[in-house]
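ok so heres the complex, two chains, lmk if somethin looks off
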Amino acid sequence: MNAAATIIRKEVRDAFAGRWLLLYGGLFAVLALALSYLGQRNLGSIGFENFSRTTASLLNLCLMLAPLIALSLGAGAIAGERERGTLTYLLAQPVSRWEVLIGKYAGLVVSIGVATLAGFGIAGLVIAAFAQTMEVTTYVLLVVLVLALVAVMTGLGILASVVSSTRVQALALAMAVWFFAVLFFDLVLIGMVSAASLDGAGLLAALLLNPVEIVRVLTVIQLEPDLEVLGPFGSYLLEQLGRTGASLILAGALAAWAVVPVSAAAWLFYRKA
Amino acid sequence: MLRVSGLRKTYGRTPALRGVDFAVPPGSLVALLGPNGAGKTTAFKCILGITSFEGGVEVEGLSPRRDGKEVRRRTGYLPQSPAFNEHDSCAQVLEFLAELRGADRERADELLERVGLDEQRDTKTGHLSGGMRQRLALAAALLSDPALLLLDEPTANLDAESRRQFHDLMLELKAEGKAILLSTHVLESLDQLADRVVMLERGEVVLDAPVEELVRRPGGRRFVVNLNGTDHGRFLEALEHIGIERERITPAAGHLEEAVARAAHEYEENQR
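and the predicted structre for the whole thing:
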């Protein structure tokens, strides 16, 4: 376990030395502030929106940016080491394969998590200083959900990295996952609903296949208690499962998404010996 | 110290090692010779326990299958082409590896000095020459004061002076009681360095003998030489001219360029 902790520390140091994360954290902060400021301006006054409005505005931004950075960095984790010729050397040290994989995974999650928290934190402090009302809960909840999404997407990135022989191949695979989960899944879902006449249960089952959508719906459940924005599907969730039941199912599915890909990656990495 | 018995490894359906046996006692250096693809690096990976294999491997009585981490802690490995994160300095590389190997950080400084890299302590590894990277990897291999050293082509990127320094260091390490398994294509000074020679060909041991015995053998030393595009007939003439008896020529690509070049050069010099 000490070896895994050593690899985590090294991974965090390397990740921040690469400057991509600093750019990501800075971009998050700037966009969050801009969304909050511009949102209030559109309402006819100058200043920053409160946390609830900002959270709603930030949701789509988070669901695009966080998976993108997590998938890309995860994809480079093992394939990059293999390509540079450093993987065999690392494995020749007194470490086990699972320690290398878990160390790299956890190191990346911590690094991206810190950058995300810094981005959200800077924006949050500015909004708290200038907004007229304070509703921090939803903002904090969004941060927690984004961190969970980072853990899921880094795991998928690492899985892509383990099954690929080159960094480019891993990155291509990771980007395919990003395009599908972030951009095309809605279209697929709409197609499925009309083609297969999916009912509420079918739609929920389909939704559980995409961690990005899980986070979106979980956030909406917290922001809009009556779930009007989800239309008939929102009514189904409320009537059949209730807010708590729906939240538990979605959170459970998100936890499974956090565990299954990284476990599969660890198993495949072990099998490659 | 190191005992390898009936070691077998296949990649898919291609056998890489076909029942290899040899041993490296403490305080001795065994040279592992053979053309590219003979299975030398694969044998190293099996000994380190970083690839699956059949047969037996024991390092100080421990099996890499059961006690992989402990075997690797007791084994220093110098890869053929050492690669490091090019943004890390020499000191950072050694500090990270020292932490993994459970060694003191102070030992990193001591070893940098021992391999002649004390002035490059804060130099990024991306700015090091091939020879310097090799020396850094050797320092890394020595971090946990391992009982066994696996050195894969350690002098391939070194100039003549660095090679001499490296040989002196090998003799020191042998005298300290370390068991050293060294794979090489460079035959220079091997008779002064090695105690035994194990020659692999297509995953099989074709020769396992003390160096002295090789030198004493009628007909002189025996090496398998792969010619990499060099004219066979001309090379045979060169070998015969300098008194090396031909035993076997394989058509596969390979190296030993130095031996070939030296033989060819001597032959041409004598022709003039």
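quick notes: The radius of gyration of chain A is 20 Å. thats all i got rn
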